[in-house]
Amino acid sequence: MRKAHWEKNLFELIRKTSTDLPADVEAAIRRALLKEKKNSRAAWVLTTILENAAIARKNDTPICQDTGVLQFHFGVPVGFDTNALVAMTRSAVSRATRYGYVRQNTLDSVSGASYETNIAHGSPVFHFQQKARKTVDVRLVMKGGGSENVGRQFSLPDAEIGASRDLEGVRKCILQAVWEAQGNGCAPGILGVCIGGDRTTGYTHSKEQFLRKIGEKSPVKLLAKLEERIIKDCRKLDIGPMGLGGRATLLDAKIDALSRHPACYFVTVSFMCWAFRRRGVLLGPEGGIKRWLY
Ligand code: SF4
């Protein structure tokens, strides 16, 4: 294992994620802009967002001042040394913080003290899966705090919003979460939704939906239909970019389901803001870049 290679390319993944909005996200914002009225506040916000993304890319600076919580998703070959991978990733995060690609964004929850390098208990976040291949698949999502704050978990049935344990109940939960957020969490964004699971896996799986590309529909027909319906319904809420009115409340909705306990029916909704920083890279056995995934 060539440590320097790994650290260099993990650093490059962080740099690119922080400064270069993915093409599918930017294209979705452009499509949303075409649907807004000319000279409206919504059109102005979306235009500013696109200008901001272009400046960040050109100047090699973070797209947003909140560089979020770094969430790494690794797919590793059987027998791969994950402890070494964690250590090298931490080193890359620490360097990216020193270079300003990541803000000092991690606090001690008891004392309130700031960690200079973003390396702490629970930071960054790591997820691992074993894959039957020789390459290492690394996907990084930088999850902003504002969008994290508006995430919501429902336990059905929910009499307050009239949601029962079916897909219509799920739809009501999702719309309720979007309505309550009112553009906070920096709309227009993307929803990651998990139906079922338990309280922990519900949130984890809802966030895993952010690894899917914009426009990529659920392979489950009923869920794909629900995704489309949610996007259409949300356009009518007139929440719009940053909650200032307009059609572009969402860029996309990703819904998936886990099995559940018969007594439980959770619907977990995670929000991602317009600054949807998600990149992935395939690294070879020595840490060299094979190809970018997005
Ligand atoms: S929610 Fe997203 S766009 Fe808004 S401040 Fe946080 S990271 Fe930036």
Binned strand content: 15-25%
Q: pLDDT below 50 for ≥5 consecutive residues: which ranges?
A: none
Count of individual beta strands: 9
User: How many alpha or pi helices?
Assistant: 8
Determine the fraction of residues in helical runs and give it as a percent range. 25-40%
Going across the biggest sheet, name each strand in turn.
Answer: 2-1-3-8-9
Biggest sheet layout = 5 strands, mixed
Q: What small-molecule ligands were found?
A: iron/sulfur cluster
Average the pLDDT over all residues and give the rounded result: 97
General shape: globular
Structural class: alpha+beta
Radius of gyration from the CA trace? 19 Å
Number of domains: 2
From the N-terminal CA to the C-terminal CA, the straight-line distance is 25 Å
Order of helix and strand elements from N to C terminus: HHHEHEEHEHEHHEEEE
Describe the structure in your own words.
The chain is α+β, with helices and mostly antiparallel strands and 294 residues long. It has 2 domains: 113 residues, Dihydrodipicolinate Reductase, domain 2, CATH 3.30.360; 127 residues. It is built from 8 helices and 9 strands. A 5-stranded mixed beta sheet has the order 2-1-3-8-9. Strands 4-7-5-6 form a 4-stranded mixed beta sheet. Strand 8 and strand 9 form a beta hairpin. Helix 1 packs across helix 4, helix 2 packs antiparallel against helix 3 and helix 6 packs parallel to helix 8. Bound molecules: iron/sulfur cluster. The site of iron/sulfur cluster has 11 residues, from helix 5.
Name some characteristics of this structure.
alpha+beta; 8 helices; five-stranded mixed beta sheet; binds iron/sulfur cluster; Dihydrodipicolinate Reductase, domain 2
